[in-house]
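Lab notes, practical 5.
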Amino acid sequence: MARLKEAHPEEYAHYLSEAKAEALAEFETTWRRHLAGDHSQR
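Output from the prediction step:
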């Protein structure tokens, strides 16, 4: 993984940024459901 990151730092940064944004969006959706009373594990 480190070699791929070294060989393609800009592409790696782009995909990492996308993955973080997707994870944050999923977390925020789950948190809003939780605050609304939905405590199920999805």
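Observations recorded by the TA: The chain has one domain: 1-36. Residues 15 and 21 are 10 Å apart (CA to CA).
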